[in-house]
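=== Structure Prediction Worksheet ===
Name of assembly: unnamed complex
Input type: mixed (protein and possibly other molecules)
Chain count: two
Listed entries:
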Amino acid sequence: MKDPRRDNKVDIATRVMSRNDSFAARNHELLRSNDILTLNIISSPGAGKTSLLEAMAGFFGPGLAVIEGDVRTRRDAERVEKAGCKAYQIETGGSCHLDAEAVGKALEHFDLTDGELSILAIENVGNLICPSGYDLGEDMKVGLLSTPEGDDKVLKYPSLFSRIAVLVINKTDLLPMLDFDVDRAVRECRSLNPNVVVFLMSARTGEGVEEFCRFLKGQAELEE
Amino acid sequence: MHELSIAKDMTTIIGKAIGGPRPLDRVNVTIGPLSGISAESLRFCFGEVARSEGFGEPELVITLVAARLVCLDCETEYNAKDFYDGCPSCGSINRNILSGREFTVDSVEFDEGNS
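=== Predicted Assembly ===
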């Protein structure tokens, strides 16, 4: 047999994300087997992920559980708990994304088998780049883009916007004050991702929240 | 910047493939424009991680591949490194992504005597 230490070139041909992906596959199987629809919610900081989750907690109540990813503090977990659902906070301690191994450990803090839980939302660390390459075991990535960020962001972050199943354009209540062109953002997202499902929303006023939640409920029922 | 944890995943993969750390001359990787990986950050982080883990100071050779796209309006297949430009035949940005998410450790190289 050839001793690789004696060759001066060793072919490896291995995907670097393969370790994360094997943890993600494990999470996915666990969640699927308990009929839980899992979302990986990704946006820049301040786009309204936690506000969206608070609004979702109002719709789903204890049928929703949330894993919060933040560099520090339990503040976001406390916000969504107050809104009526169970939450667990992962403090990444400086890391800019969640990985599947950390999510797998967080899942141990939930009773997935009680039948009450139908949707798990994972709020990723606020960042449009790093979380995009890390599958966590979700059924779908939800990309949240808020109107003050500008309508040109989709093509600047193609790694993320080409992978999302759902685009939520949040803070539509601010549209009259901004130059944000909704059609442009949607068109450019579809140019990376022809099948993306789009929702316009203001998590603050509640506009569009119910439509989004009904869509998720329908998707969760498909899982069962 | 997640390239530090990525660099550690790379040295784990390399260590497994060659049976543990040893000084390397060259590490060859491929990165696609939809991988979410910054070549510059990776180069910086990988150098640090490789050295601290006993892989010496290998040159990181990065092959940046283009994404392969197919126009949904005229069916032309084309390459793109960024996504602002549309189809070279008809200008449309309606397209399907065929590839572009690559991120692999392809191979490593070292001197015969360097073990």
